[in-house]
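[job 4471] stage=fold_predict status=RUNNING
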Amino acid sequence: MESLKEKTAKGLFWGGMNNGMQQLLGLVFGIILGRLLSPSDYGLIAMITIFSLIATALQNSGFSTALVNEKEPKDSDYNSVFWFNILMGASIYIILFFSAPFIADYYHEPRLVTLCRYAFIGLLFSCSGVAQAAYLYKNLRAKQLAKASITATIISSCVAAIMAWQGFSYWSLATQTNLFILISTLLRWHYSDWRPSLQIDFSFVRKAFPFSVKILISDVLTHVNNNVMNILLGRYYSAHDTGNYNQAYQWNNKCTSLIQGMVKQVDQAVLVSVRDDQERQLAVLRKMVRFAAFISFPLLLGFGLVAKEFIVLAIGEKWLVSAHYLQWLCVCGAVAPISVLLADLIISRGHSGIFMGATLALGLLEILAMLLLYPYGIHTMVMAYVALNLVWLFVWFTFASRLTSYTLLLFMKDIVPFGLAAAGVMIATGYLTTSITNLWLLLLCRVVLAAILYLLVMKVARAKILDETLDFVRNKFKR
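[job 4471] inference complete, writing C-alpha cells
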C-alpha cells in the first residue's frame, strides 16, 4: 500500500503534469488567439468573467471543499452535494439570463446581453461535475483529473482557434470556456467510481453549511479580488484598455497556475490527513512551501524579465502595453502559490472563518485602492494591486503561524533564499544580455542563461529540494 509521502509525490507529479500541459497548451493557443483576436475581444470577455466565477462559487457553495475536509465522507454526503449543485446551477443560470441587460448597462456595452446568455451556459454543464471532481480529489486521483483537464483543454482550444480564424471574434473565447467545462465534466464522470442516486438527502449540506458558507463567501471574495481590475477598468475605461490588462493578467495567471495547480491537487487533502499530528503537518507544509518557492520565484521573476520580448514576438506589438503590466504582475505572482498554501493550511484546520475574514479584508482594501487611484492611470492601479498582494503574504502567514509552530524565522528560511537567488539571477541575466538587440536571440539567451545560473546557484547552495525533485523525476521515468 502506498504511503502518504508516495501519494503526495504522485499527486504533485500529476498535478505538475496536468498544469504543465495545460499551461503549454495555453501558451500555444494563447499565442494563436492573441494574434487572431483584438484587445477589445478579450476586454468583452474579461468584463463578464467575474459573473461566471461568482456564479460557479455560488453553485458549489463551498461543499466541494467541505467534502475534501471531511475525514471519511459517505456516499450520501456526495449525493446531497450533487443534487444541491444541480438545483443551484439551474437557478443561477436563470437569474443571470434575465440579469444580462443590467450587466450590459453597467459597462455601457449592449453586445454583452447576448454574450452573457451564451457564456453562462457553462454553469449548466459544470453543476453535475462538482461532486465527481471532489471524489477524485479526495481520493488523490490526480492522474485522472489531469487526463480530464488536458483532453478538455486540447479540444476546446482547437475549436476556439478555428472559430477565431473564421472571424467569430469574442464568441470563440466564450465557446472555448463552455466546451472545456462540458468535456472535463463528462470525463470526470468517466473516471469517477461514484454515481448519484435518486434518494435525495441534504443532511450533509445542512451539517456542513456553517463551514461551507464561509468557504463560499471566501471564494466569491477571492474572485472579486483577482478581477477587481477588470471590473473597474471595464466601467471606467474602454474594452480595449480592459483587454490589454486582461492579457497581462492571463499570462501571469498561466505561470502562477502552473505551481498553484500542482500543489492544490494534493495540499488540502494531505494537510487534512495529518492534521491530528501537528508536528508532521508543519513538516509537510514547510516542504510544500519550499517546493513552491523553489519553482515559483525563478519562473515568475524570469517571466517578468522576458515579458516585453515574449509579448511582442508571441502575439504582436499591438499588445506591447500588456508587457509593462505583466512585468509588475509577475512580482506578486511569484508569492501567490505560497499564499495559497498558507490559506489552505488555515482551511485544513477548520478555520474557514479566518480564511473568509482575511480574504474580505484584502478585497475591501483592493477595491478602495482602485477606486481612489483609477484617475491616476492603469499603471498606478497595477502597482497598488501588486503591493497589496505582497503584503498579504505575511497576513496569511500570521494567521497560519497562530495555528502551528511555524515561526517567522522558519518561514523566511524557507522562502528568502529562493527569492534572493532568483532575483540575483534575473538581475545578472538582464545585465549580461543588455547589448543584444535581436528580440529572438535576446529571449533565447535570457531564458537559457537564467535557467543555467539558477540551477548552478541551487547546486552550489546544496538546496535539498533540488536533489529531491531531481531524484523523484529520475525514479518516475525509470519505471
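[job 4471] summary: The chain is about 85% helix and 0% strand.
[job 4471] exit 0
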